[in-house]
Amino acid sequence: MKAVVFHGVGDIRLDDVPDPTIQSSTDAIVRLTASAICGTDLHFIRGSAPDMQAGTILGHEGVGIIEEVGDDVRNLKVGDRVVIPSTIACGNCSYCRAGYFSQCDVANPNGSTAGTAFFGGPKTTGPFNGLQAEKARIPFANIGLIKLPEEITDDQAIAMSDIFPTAWFGAEMAEIKDGDTVAVFGCGPVGLFAIVSAKLMGAARVFAIDGLDDRLARAKALGAECINFEDEDPVETIARLTGDIGVDRAVDAVGIDANHVHHGETHEQAQWQAGDEPSQVLQWAVETVAKAGTISIIGVYPAGFDNFPIGAAMNKNLRINMGNCHHRKYIPGLIEMTLAGRVDPSKILTQIEPLTDAISAFKSFDKHQTGWIKVKLDPTATLGGQT
Question: Which of 80, 161, 221, 245 suits 129 as a labelling partner, its CA being 20 to 30 A distant?
Fold first, then answer.
């Protein structure tokens, strides 16, 4: 089968690889009908998230049809259409039973304290082969696959594999309530869904901060008040627009790559050293949030990134919540919200490309070419030579 494979920093290829097979009684094999490119993938390609293993299939977003199930997958059958949560969880341990699926004690083969297990990530996360492929093995499929109603399209479902639940999780951690004023830093796909989530949770005002006009235009269409940090200081602008009070909540939907984007770098240029520079986004967040407010961090920061304005945050009595999304917890509710017509996740997609063109799509996405915000990959375009 065809798959996007990591070979080294700045080196990914579309390779022919063996089809996946059942390895455990709780496994399933899924033929993918949709995958996607995520900003997190760029962390691996740029080297800003270390320990990627050569030969790992990339991608952690997927929708597909079950082709085979292990003997202990008793809630699903061959032919079921499913969405695949990005993070992997066993469903049995105390963390899973409490809803902390991304902190599962069992899924990560590196041990219970190793952290989140997910598809297409570095050695510390498994590693598990990812979903930018024609087929994938899904561990703990009885908990890790969610059957989709016929009314939900692939374009809607692929957004619910990762970016929509991550944004909802971020808005929830920000403790958004009716009437709040919120700042969302970053208007990529997760940031745009964070704006949507904040509005659904009752926020009265949402500021969107980014440096790309096409992303800010989409944020404005969602009802956000937009600030281009290339044209004005977001701290000063938010202070002026809020009567020098600041925002009640802030969501960091960018992470470490904000510094590379700010400097205009691609993965071929970006070199990251642990702790070498503070996060501009976190500095802005601490400065713009009002006293006793909340900061939510869902942007990715790798181990070793240690610079944070802790003194300023402490002296403002800020609450800071952060972490990896518990996808399995949120996806069912987002499916119901989509069925009810409260949101259409497909509207965030900007490109649909065949898997065979994935390398070209990665280059355009990495360069932040105008209009390239969320890219869906279509693995079916390579099957049987048909598109």
Answer: 80
- Find out whether 318 and 171 touch, Cβ atoms under 8 Å: no
DSSP 131-147: SSBSEEEETTHHHH-EE
123-173 pLDDT, tens digit each: 999 999 999 999 999 999 999 999 999 999 999 999 999 999 999 999 999
pLDDT in tens, 229-262: 999 999 999 999 999 999 999 999 998 765 544 4
Residues 136 and 202 in one domain: no
Domains identified in the chain, total number:
2
Residues 112 and 182 in one domain: no
Integer angstrom CA distances of residue 299 from 49, 133, 163, 254, 257: 12, 25, 11, 4, 9
pTM exceeds 0.90, yes or no: yes
How far apart CA 107 and CA 126 sit, in angstroms, is 8
Strands 146-147 and 135-138: unpaired
Instruction: Report the Cα–Cα distance between both ends of the chain, in Å, rounded.
Output: 16
Q: What is the pLDDT of residues 209-223, one digit of tens each?
A: 999 999 999 999 999
Beta strand 375-378 with 28-37: parallel, antiparallel or unpaired? antiparallel
